């Protein structure tokens, strides 16, 4: 009874997630959840094949094992496509050649295994199932059955490579997305993909189980309560992925278009380019604005004429943000500041990086925390919640996170 429960648990959870995603997409269709639906449906079929294996439904095994080989090689690439849909401005799903490349091992493995089963005689098939699938032995295999075992072994190696590669790429994509947010928004909590990091951590742990289980083979868990370990691990991650995919707000990526993280990190804005920027200043008095005297500047503007000459956009940006106290505005965006300065966000990103070495988010939040410290000193009767609101934070939790990160002892 317990073995049957553990064998069925991941399949049932995946099936429920698939149905819920399908119902949600009927109400409100979006591409990330469509990609997640494909992943969940594939995982459901994969664990159905596991269920058939552990229940010794031998007459179905040639077909279910063929599907298993294909689905096993497809689940991780499909999950990468889902993460790309969340994090990339040009997701993999919009590139047919990329999708075909990612899924080619699954297609090739499934087709090769299916052809091998068709070419095997009933006796060879029965021998392959009893000898290889349930005992992991090659000793009595010959001909097409031996070729089938080679196909399965190659598939297991490819699966191990996919697990490592997909995890690395997912982590990079989420990190790149959050870095872009730091460049463009002062408040990133509602837009960040930090919730995906929870999934990635669980996925790393589960991937270790996958690699171990893949290495020792399914036959080792057959008829043993050790099956509970991978079953519960996979079920937990599957449930978490499905729940977060259904309930977490999906990011709006349009504003991240044409932001190249590597370029912004590794290349300084050419000084001659900054020199020749023609800013259309909607604020007539911007040059007359003095920085707030009562707040110690986070990155004081050097008074050197050379700096004034070489970084005029940075000088104007600081005067505007600090002089007009724009940093107290909730959800301040770099695009808003760029519009007030009559320039584009690429030049402004370069100017801030060249002038103080900070992202827009860090610069604004350091100003907010400095202002909060001043408010606390001058108005001890104010609550932390009131101070958070006065400093531009929507929630006290956002204020506490930034206080912990930027408050200097």
Features of this protein?
409 residues; mainly alpha
Strand content: under 5%
Largest sheet: none
Oligomer: single chain
Estimate percent helicity. Answer: 55-70%
Class by helix and strand content?
mainly alpha
What separation lies between the terminal Cα atoms?
Answer: 60 Å
Question: Radius of gyration over alpha carbons?
Answer: 28 Å
Tertiary shape: elongated
Q: What is the succession of H and E elements?
A: HHHHHHHHHHHHHHHHHH
Query: What is the mean predicted local confidence, pLDDT?
Result: 81
Q: Helix count, per DSSP?
A: 18
**Strand runs, count:** 0
Unreliable segments of 5+ consecutive residues: 263-297, 299-309
Summarize the structure in words:
- The structure is a single chain.
- By secondary structure, this protein is mostly helical.
- Helix 1 packs parallel to helix 9 and helix 2 runs antiparallel to helix 4.
- 37% of the residues are buried.
- About 11% of the residues have low confidence.
């Amino acid at each position: 009874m317990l073995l049957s429960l553990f064998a069925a648990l991941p399949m049932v959870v995946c099936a429920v997630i698939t149905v819920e995603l399908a119902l949600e997409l009927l109400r409100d269709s979006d591409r990330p959840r469509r990609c997640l639906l494909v992943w969940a449906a594939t995982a459901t079929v994969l664990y159905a094949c596991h269920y058939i294996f552990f229940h010794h439904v031998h007459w179905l095994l040639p077909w279910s094992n063929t599907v298993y080989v294909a689905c096993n090689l497809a689940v991780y690439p499909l999950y990468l496509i889902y993460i790309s849909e969340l994090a990339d401005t040009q997701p993999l799903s919009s590139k047919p050649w990329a999708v075909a490349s990612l899924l080619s091992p699954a297609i090739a493995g499934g087709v090769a295994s299916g052809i091998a089963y068709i070419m095997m005689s009933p006796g060879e098939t029965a021998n392959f199932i009893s000898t290889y699938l349930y005992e992991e032995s090659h000793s009595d295999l010959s001909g097409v059955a031996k070729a089938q075992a080679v196909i399965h072994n190659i598939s297991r190696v490819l699966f191990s490579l996919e697990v490592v590669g997909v995890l690395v790429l997912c982590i990079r994509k989420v990190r790149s997305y959050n870095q872009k947010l730091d460049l463009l928004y002062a408040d990133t909590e509602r837009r960040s993909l930090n919730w995906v990091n929870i999934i990635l951590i669980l996925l790393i742990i589960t991937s270790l189980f996958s690699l171990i289980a893949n290495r020792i083979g399914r036959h080792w868990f057959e008829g043993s309560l050790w099956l509970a370990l991978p079953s519960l691990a996979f079920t937990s991650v599957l449930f978490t992925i499905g729940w977060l995919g259904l309930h977490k707000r999906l990011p709006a990526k349009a504003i991240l278009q044409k932001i190249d993280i590597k370029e912004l990190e590794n290349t300084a804005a050419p000084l001659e380019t900054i020199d020749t920027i023609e800013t259309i200043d909607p604020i007539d008095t911007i040059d007359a604005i003095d920085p707030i005297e009562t707040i110690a500047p986070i990155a004081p503007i050097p008074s050197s004429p050379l700096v004034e000459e070489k970084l005029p956009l940075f000088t104007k940006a600081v005067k505007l943000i600090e002089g007009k106290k724009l940093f107290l505005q909730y959800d301040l965006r770099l695009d808003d500041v760029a519009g007030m300065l009559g320039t584009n966000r690429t030049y402004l990103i370069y100017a801030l990086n060249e002038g103080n070495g900070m992202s827009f988010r860090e610069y604004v939040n350091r100003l907010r925390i400095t202002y909060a410290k001043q408010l606390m000193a001058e108005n001890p009767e104010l609550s932390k919640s009131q101070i958070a609101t006065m400093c531009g934070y929507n929630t006290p939790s956002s204020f506490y996170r930034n206080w912990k990160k930027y408050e200097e002892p």
